[in-house]
Amino acid sequence: MINAPQGRAVQHTAGPAVSTAVESAMRRALALAAQGPSHGPNPRVGCVLLDPGGRPVAEGFHRGAGTPHAEAAALAAARSHGIDPRGTTAVVTLEPCAHHGRTGPCADALIDAGVATVHVAVSDPNPVAAGGAATLRAAGIEVTTGTLADEGEELLRHWLHAVRTGRPYVTLKLATSLDGRVAAADGTSRWITGPQARAHAHTIRAQVDAIAVGTGTALTDDPSLTARTIDGGLFEHQPLRVVLGRTAVPDDARLRGPGGALLHLPEHDLAVVLGRLAEREVRHLLVEGGPTLATALLATDAVDEVHAYVAPVLLGSGPTVVGDLGITTIGAAARFATHDVTRLGDDVLMVARRTQPVTNSLTNPQPAYPRQNGRPSRPTTEEI
Amino acid sequence: MINAPQGRAVQHTAGPAVSTAVESAMRRALALAAQGPSHGPNPRVGCVLLDPGGRPVAEGFHRGAGTPHAEAAALAAARSHGIDPRGTTAVVTLEPCAHHGRTGPCADALIDAGVATVHVAVSDPNPVAAGGAATLRAAGIEVTTGTLADEGEELLRHWLHAVRTGRPYVTLKLATSLDGRVAAADGTSRWITGPQARAHAHTIRAQVDAIAVGTGTALTDDPSLTARTIDGGLFEHQPLRVVLGRTAVPDDARLRGPGGALLHLPEHDLAVVLGRLAEREVRHLLVEGGPTLATALLATDAVDEVHAYVAPVLLGSGPTVVGDLGITTIGAAARFATHDVTRLGDDVLMVARRTQPVTNSLTNPQPAYPRQNGRPSRPTTEEI
């Protein structure tokens, strides 16, 4: 199960017993959804089918682009066990899609299967795929939305942000001493944080679509930007490696070694950069450095979440984690809201999120995120 | 109960049942001890008396200088309930003292009472008071030491440090942004951290013997350095207020208002400063600022514990929490060991401790800490 706060009660249901069964099924559907990949162009969705007595009879989840949607997976599971889905209640974490992708719309599949009722956690904000609830209702199916909506929003946080704003969710990783330094005066920085913090950072790399650094970091540190396990092996998923800036990436750079595809964007305009990444279906971008890029992102209000790994270390000199942000007084500080605090060995990870709405300058008014059935259609190994 | 890790098993006892009873009684004695004041010249001590069957029959703890020691309190409690302490087992968190203060030595009191066995968590390192175990053994009483020794050491951490080194335990408080800044470029700093972090810092003030700032902070911020409750009232205990530096404290400074006594030390030599505070029976010194004093303490390896309140804020400019420490490479960083991490609203508190032994330059070879029965004998309202 995902670690979710106490959810809201289901609305518009037949009674307390059904309400409890639906909420329980939605928790299961959320847990199923969380088994899908957190990266990739498609949202993570789970679905549980209940018989008229409220008992679960089949379930399914989306395993990533190119595989069946959760509703189709649940219906197929029911049929494979000889269960007729007619009259069942479908409990699904995201509003069933109404568009034709590689397969037909999930709304039609539920109608064709004779499902009687549909409970949804989160409505689909995607203008291409939305309308599933209306399609279902037009077919006489009772639809309620908002069951465990907060948990559903949290699970789909990055995808929803990308659909709503037309640009990737940007997570800025920082790894600093208590005095905000990323290296000592002589430039040495290995290691400020400890092995547990570094291992954790690699698990985050394995969950995102892309990871970005500036050319300065690419040339100075020669990073591989791979997602590695504790024993040094590569995770199955490797994020797209993005280098921002005009300087060429050397032929022998580790960035050209094993790992995700390399994308070199000579852009300095971050709105353009994020738009380019959106076109490539990057929903979640992890930015790892260094101070120049972090400063540019913060100064343009492009950071949606900060992952700050803080070590119990004081240096007293050396480069600081961010440069001048044009902030002159405390009331104008770039302030985030702490979402989670985790101790990792001697270090602490603060996960803190945006407190202000996304500014328009970075929002694409025409979201570039069709919800797909197929594999991403664009090439992923190019340099621009 | 104190929040203690799993303790060691008792050694040298009659058997598992007695062992369990003694360990249980020691946990109670530690909890009792923790009810005593964490400030003041005397250690916090608790004592539980067990009958020959291992059942607790009386208990006591030390309530601060000028009140009975824990053993005397427990014996008095037994007698007030008509219980003869002869043949009982005394379970006490610190080795009973062997010196004559305002009352006679606790070791003699236990011998006179006819106690049969004594279990101790921590031996007394105080050369004036030590020797209690030997006195008891010479009188034919069985004495074991080391029961829940780790928990006992933790409870007496500041006092033991002061007795062993001859100088106060120094806790350095830092309150910073994620980029290690204590104020914005225009000097504004209210508030980087939130109300929960500030309230927590006041509870720490109420637990220490003294609180120190440099004259720079005293003049710039005009702090009161009082320990205040959430509603703005004063805690019963107010720490000695220490200002370090040559500049005079203005007549109308808040430091001269309600609160603890004011001590102005024009010293720049931190070994001398700590020695002066040790003479005044300061066991635990909290240093609150600013960067100049923090830097001096860190540069002389005088910091025993760091309390870093970190806010999810980025400033990009403004003064950093510490200045140049003479550290040029990462291997020479001032590195502490994290003891505890606490989320306080949006902020996080990292409590991190010294990893290297105290250096000799700051250690007084002749500890100036007699364990007292009486009130501190030195005046506490002077300026030097």
Throw out a few tags for this protein.
10 helices; disordered C terminus; 2 domains; Cytidine Deaminase, domain 2; diaminohydroxyphosphoribosylaminopyrimidine deaminase activity (chains A, B); alpha/beta; Dihydrofolate Reductase, subunit A; disordered N terminus; 15 strands; elongated; 384 residues; multifunctional enzyme (chains A, B); 8-stranded mixed beta sheet; oxidoreductase (chains A, B); homodimer; 5-stranded mixed beta sheet
Protein architecture, described:
The structure is a homodimer of 384-residue chains. With 384 residues, chain A is an alpha/beta fold. Chain A has two domains: 16-155, Cytidine Deaminase, domain 2, CATH 3.40.140.10; 168-362, Dihydrofolate Reductase, subunit A, CATH 3.40.430. Helices cover 25% and strands 21% of the residues of chain A. In chain A, strand 4, helix 4 and strand 5 form a beta-alpha-beta unit. Chain A is elongated, with a radius of gyration of 23 Å. Chain A starts with 15 loop residues before the first helix and ends in a 31-residue tail after the last strand. At the A-B interface, strand 11, strand 12, strand 13, strand 14 and strand 15 of A face strand 11, strand 12, strand 13, strand 14 and strand 15 of B. Chains A, B: Pathway: Cofactor biosynthesis; riboflavin biosynthesis; 5-amino-6-(D-ribitylamino)uracil from GTP: step 3/4; Cofactor biosynthesis; riboflavin biosynthesis; 5-amino-6-(D-ribitylamino)uracil from GTP: step 2/4. Chains A, B: Keywords: Hydrolase, Metal-binding, Multifunctional enzyme, NADP, Oxidoreductase, Riboflavin biosynthesis, Zinc.
